[in-house]
Design goal:
The chain is an alpha+beta fold. It has one domain: SH3 type barrels, CATH 2.30.30. It is built from 3 helices and 6 strands. It has helices at residues 2-17, 44-49, 83-86, and strands at residues 22-23, 33-38, 57-63, 70-74, 77-81, 89-93. It has a 6-stranded antiparallel beta sheet. The longest helix has 16 residues, at 2-17.
C-alpha cells in the first residue's frame, strides 16, 4: 500500500511539472530538467561560468537539513547553490523516459 501511494505521488509530480517552464528551485530531488534561461541578477555571470547555460541538463541530488543550499548534478559535476540563486534559473522538467 505504501509503495502504491508513493507511485501515485510521483505521477502527480510528473503531471504537475513535466513540460512546463518552472524555476530550478521548484524541481524535486532526482528529477531531470533542461535549463531554459538564467534571469538577470547579481548571480547571472557566476552561474553561467559554473555551467548554468541554456540547454544544459541539471538534477537536484540532495538538500541541506533546512532545504538550503541544494546540491545539483550539472553535466559531469556537482554544484551547490542557494535557493535564491536557483530561483533565477528557468528550467523545463523532462520526462525521465523520454528526456530530450
Amino acid at each position: 500500500m505504501v509503495e502504491h501511494c508513493h507511485y501515485l505521488y510521483l505521477i502527480q509530480i510528473k503531471i504537475h511539472l513535466c513540460g512546463k517552464q518552472v524555476k530550478l528551485s521548484e524541481l524535486h530531488i532526482g528529477q531531470i530538467a533542461r535549463i531554459r534561461s538564467v534571469a538577470e541578477s547579481p548571480f547571472k555571470e557566476k552561474l553561467q561560468e559554473m555551467g548554468c547555460i541554456p540547454g544544459s541538463l541539471i538534477k537536484p541530488i540532495r538538500k541541506a537539513p533546512f532545504g538550503d543550499p541544494i546540491a545539483y548534478e550539472l553535466e559531469e559535476y556537482t554544484l551547490s547553490m542557494r535557493k535564491n540563486e536557483a530561483e533565477t534559473i528557468e528550467i523545463r522538467p523532462l520526462d525521465p523516459l523520454f528526456s530530450s
